[in-house]
Design brief:
The complex is a heterodimer.
Chain A (H helix, E strand, L loop, with lengths): L1 E5 L2 E5 L5 H7 L23 E4 L6 E2 L10 E3 L3 H16 L15 H9 L23 E3 L9 H8 L6 E3 L6 E3 L16 H5 L5 E3 L3 H8 L5 E6 L20 H11 L3 E4 L1 H21 L5 E2 L4 H10 L13 H17 L6 E7 L3 H5 L17 E4 H10 L21 H4 L6 H15 L17 E8 L2 E9 L1 H12 L7 E5 L16 H4 L4 H15 L9 H11 L5 H7 L13
Parallel strand pairs in A: 1-5, 10-11, 10-13, 12-17, 13-14, 16-17
Antiparallel strand pairs in A: 1-2, 3-4, 3-5, 6-9, 7-8, 15-16
Chain B lengths: L13 H14 L6 H12 L4 H11 L3 H10 L11 E6 L2 H5 L2 H12 L12 E6 L11 E3 L2 E3 L7 H6 L3
Helix pairs in contact in B: 1-2
């Protein structure tokens, strides 16, 4: 421990701490802008500057380590003036249309200005760097007029082993963008949205589809059905200032109903179907000498990554559609037929933790009802539905708890944990084990594959059949594992890959949390905990025990892996290029 | 100013590509080797268009954006080719106050291109340069190694016509 003084008060802080961490320990939150712990530690923005006795200039608290006897001052006039000037300079080139900005209220630049009493200063107003918004992709919009050049998005993209954005040109002309100013849609972006959740301002936002949903609700011809992904219940509360990790399933259903949609279903249903098909596919591959290891296909960001960066491993990827697409496909086939609704009049909406889902709905071979009728028509991220509920004056926090509509609304524990890294694997193992043993097993918790570590591995013995599994989340970790698979150095048979670090609970469509929360809270773990608690408390914890799953196979799909199941629930992938096509 | 990007068709040859790959083999794999490779690539091709940068990115297994970021940060790297005749206008203080901007504007008008661009036929390119040490002759323009001093806007067309 080091003995230091902060603003004259003595503290004993761990060796190796930065000034930022030491001050936090002392109960002082030094403001930051560019700093994201373990991701973007570049000390560039100068918002976190403090005075250190004996130091010639102000130092950046986020990266400056403490040492024995250090005396730190966090709020001297020199410090405050420096921070104010930095903010004024940032504002001088900022597109200050704050009132209608989607980040109004959650913008970190705005928050800093409010704290320090900084307003627009006309004397600094001058030329602004020219930029044109990039609206080329299905999933996001980049508006560099609101960019503060913190490079948090660049770091997030590099961490995903994608690295298609970076700082181009220099000085006043610096712009974050793609090589040769190409639109994002033309490079190997995987649509994960980790850049968006890293952005402190409104420079990066999801492509907003809330108006499309409202229009559908207000169209009397349309039958609007909403499904909500497993992880949304663990995060939507954050949009309404509820504590991280609050399960708001009941309120979420109640809120969607109050928007005026016709039915609210649970993507858990699609997750259970995925498990039925995937577990069957896995056992089939093992027994018939098929391509192994088999890799999960639920995460569209991961699927696109594989198509761009590991096209040679596409035969390893399960042919199952994602739970979102399976739910949408069953809605427009089985459900539509059963209820005598023309699938053309159904608007299939999903609430997802994910921006890649916006890309996924337009993929080839995602139209089970035929005639180009998409399985899913509109995807809203958690953030968008949060905004829409506010816009529609829904008093979310005080709503009663309501249940999903029954047709596709039974949640299972297996479906619930899909939202956390390791969840799909555990759910699949629960079903695979029962299938192999031919009897329901008592012990259904697979703790080895739980947790937010980068890489998890376990070996299970099912009735003499040894199964080695691996679970990774975050594409950097996926890349490391896949290099091994490619080189033939991995002996795993079954791999779960989630695009976003920690799985869907930390998806690119989840509520943004400011750096001061992100840097000192394990968001992934808190949100995942809510899902594992739900799993423990549900009557059905295995996918194949869900009464709806039994019903749809009896009435419609016949059996996992059947011809009709393949038609409706499976898909194909395409090879894409890693570099630009010239 | 943002670096201009060439819109002219890429004319690289097989020999140039072999030279480039040799350079990458010799310098690749080491940390920080992007700079020398880009410098040599520019010596080989004269500029660094997307085709050249893509070859470097693929061969080095480095993201194209990283290469592009470096190539736009340093002023010595050019993303547009130079013409057979590179017309350079001094924008140093003395030349500037003596009307270099008007001269430059006229050259752009006559050639139909902007600074850091090259004509479709590959004949002319325009560069704005810093002081070349001939302030007594301000404003100064050069065409390759030929220096023209005390240039007036009305003389521009005559000067350029010598290089048709």
């Amino acid at each position: 421990m080091y003995q230091i003084k902060i603003n004259g008060m003595p503290f004993s802080v761990p060796e190796g701490s930065t000034i930022l961490e030491a001050a936090r320990f002392a109960g002082i939150k030094i403001p930051t802008l560019c700093f994201l712990k373990d991701l973007n530690e570049i000390g560039a923005c100068r918002v976190c500057v403090v005075e250190v006795k004996g130091a010639r200039s102000l130092v950046a608290a986020c990266v400056h380590p403490v040492n024995e006897g250090m005396e730190i001052f966090t709020n001297t006039p020199r410090v405050i003036e420096s921070r104010k000037t930095t903010l004024q300079l940032l504002l001088s080139v900022h597109d200050r249309k704050c009132l209608s900005c989607v980040r109004n209220g959650t913008c970190e630049l705005q928050q800093l200005c409010a704290e320090l009493g900084v307003d627009i200063d006309d004397k600094l107003d001058g030329e602004k760097p020219a930029s044109v918004p990039d609206t080329s992709t299905a999933h996001l919009v980049r508006n560099n007029a609101k960019c503060v050049l913190c490079r948090r998005c660049v770091a997030a993209c590099e961490r995903q082993h994608v690295a298609v954005i970076g700082a181009n040109n220099r000085g006043f002309d610096t712009q974050i963008g793609c090589a040769f100013n190409l639109p994002l849609a033309e490079v190997s972006c995987v649509s994960c949205g980790q850049c968006i959740v890293s952005c402190p301002t409104g420079a990066l936002v999801e492509r907003d589809q809330t108006a499309e949903l409202l229009a559908a609700i207000n169209d009397p011809e349309k039958y609007v059905v909403v499904q909500t992904a497993p992880s949304i219940r663990a995060t939507l509360g954050e949009c309404f200032d509820m504590p991280v990790g609050t399960n708001v399933k009941g309120k979420m259903v109640a809120a969607l109903r109050r928007l005026g949609v016709d039915k609210v279903f649970d993507t858990d249903f699609g997750a259970d179907l995925t498990i039925m098909e995937e577990a069957h596919e896995f056992i089939h591959r093992v027994k018939t000498g098929g391509v192994l290891p088999m890799i999960t296909s639920c995460s569209p960001g991961w699927v696109k990554f594989c198509e761009h960066y590991f096209p040679d491993l596409l035969p390893n990827v399960s042919t199952c559609k994602s739970p979102q697409q399976m739910t949408g496909a069953m809605l427009k086939t089985w459900y539509a037929e059963k209820n005598g609704i023309d699938p053309k009049n159904i608007v299939s909406v999903s609430i997802m933790p994910c921006t890649a889902k916006k890309f996924e709905i337009d993929r080839e071979d995602q139209d089970a009802a035929g005639d180009g009728i998409q399985d899913v028509d509109i995807v809203l991220t958690t953030r968008e539905i949060g905004r829409l509920l506010k816009q529609c004056n829904i008093d979310f926090v005080h709503l009663p708890d309501e249940e999903f509509d029954p047709a596709m609304g039974i949640s299972t524990g297996a479906g619930a944990i899909f939202g956390a890294t390791g969840g799909v694997m555990e759910a699949a193992l629960r079903t695979a084990a029962d299938t192999i043993f031919g009897a329901p097993l008592e012990n259904i918790e697979y703790h080895e594959v739980r947790g937010t570590q980068d890489y998890k591995e376990a070996t299970y013995n099912f009735d003499g059949l040894e199964v080695k599994v691996a679970v990774v989340s975050g594409l950097e970790n996926a890349n490391t594992l896949l290099e091994k698979v490619r080189a033939g150095e991995s002996d795993c048979q079954f791999i779960e890959i989630m695009c976003c670090p920690g799985g869907c609970v930390n998806g690119g469509g989840q509520p943004t949390q400011p750096a001061e929360v992100r840097n000192f809270t394990d968001l992934k773990a808190l949100r995942a905990k809510a899902l594992y608690e739900e799993d423990e408390n549900l009557p059905f914890r295995k996918s194949h025990e869900s009464p709806i799953i039994k019903q749809v196979y009896e009435e419609y799909l016949q059996a996992p892996g059947s011809h009709i199941a393949h038609q409706i629930l499976h898909t194909t992938f395409v090879k894409r290029s890693k570099t630009v096509q010239l | 100013m943002q670096k201009r990007i060439s819109t002219l068709p890429f004319q690289g040859t097989k020999e140039q590509q072999e030279q480039l790959f040799k350079v990458i083999d010799e310098n690749g794999g080491k940390n920080g080797s992007v700079m020398p490779i880009l410098q040599k690539a520019q010596e080989i091709y004269g500029y660094l268009p997307i085709e050249v940068q893509t070859m470097i990115a693929e061969k080095m297994d480095v993201p194209l954006e990283e290469i592009y970021g470096v190539s736009t940060f340093y002023s010595l790297f050019a993303l547009t080719p130079k013409g057979k005749y590179n017309v350079s206008v001094c924008m140093g203080t003395a030349c500037y106050v003596k009307g270099a901007a008007d001269v430059l504007g006229k050259i752009c008008e006559v050639l139909g291109i902007q600074p850091e661009e090259c004509t479709q036929d590959g004949k002319f390119s325009i560069t704005e340069c810093r002081c070349i040490g001939a302030c007594g002759l301000a404003p100064v323009m050069t065409v390759n190694d030929d220096v023209y001093g005390r240039v007036s806007v009305s003389e521009v067309e005559d000067i350029l016509s010598k290089y048709e």
